[in-house]
Design goal:
The chain is α+β, with helices and mostly antiparallel strands. It is 13% helix and 27% strand. The protein has two helices and eight strands, in the order E-E-E-E-E-E-H-H-E-E. The chain has helices at 76-84, 94-103; strands at 2-5, 10-13, 22-24, 30-32, 51-54, 60-64, 113-120, 133-140. Strands 4-3-6-7-8 form a five-stranded antiparallel β-sheet, covered by helices on one side. The longest helix has 10 residues, at 94-103.
């Protein structure tokens, strides 16, 4: 879960058993955000610990499903290392970042892949400053017939 305050660049994050969110820096470097994992949704358990991060301008928050990084024959820590070693297009907005991340995804994927990229948008000249956030999604789904 994410609660965004884009005008301040502040994001409150909590995990429901998911892999940690990532941030893409303006240089194209990818880093994982330290979010304490909580129990999966629907278990009736509580214990979600929110983590608040402030992302400077030009940074993009990236949320993803495990199908993007996990490999059946690879330890999850190694999978996350491989993921954070990606170098994405410097200065790219959410749409090109999604395309670049999906270009590095396995084909065929072993599991469904879903991505969400979110980045604050600067107000246009002559417009009142508002809390505007660009959120784009992408993914790849396995269709078994």
């Amino acid at each position: 879960m994410v609660y965004a305050e884009p005008a301040r660049g502040r994001y409150a994050l909590a995990s429901a058993g998911h892999l940690p969110p990532a941030v893409v820096r303006p240089t194209g470097e990818l880093a994982l955000l330290p979010v304490e994992p909580g129990p999966p949704l629907g278990t009736g358990l509580s214990g979600y610990v929110p983590t608040t991060v402030v992302l400077p301008p030009g940074h993009t928050l990236l949320l993803y499903t495990d199908g993007l990084v996990e490999r059946r024959d690879e330890d999850i820590d190694r999978s996350l290392e491989r993921f954070t070693a990606l170098r994405l297009p410097p200065g790219a907005g959410p749409a090109p970042l999604l395309d670049a991340v999906l270009a590095h995804a396995p084909a065929p994927a072993e599991d469904d892949i879903a991505l969400l990229a979110a980045a604050p948008v600067a107000p246009r000249p002559g417009h009142r400053r508002g809390e505007v956030l660009t959120v784009l999604t992408g993914g790849r789904w396995n269709v078994r017939r």
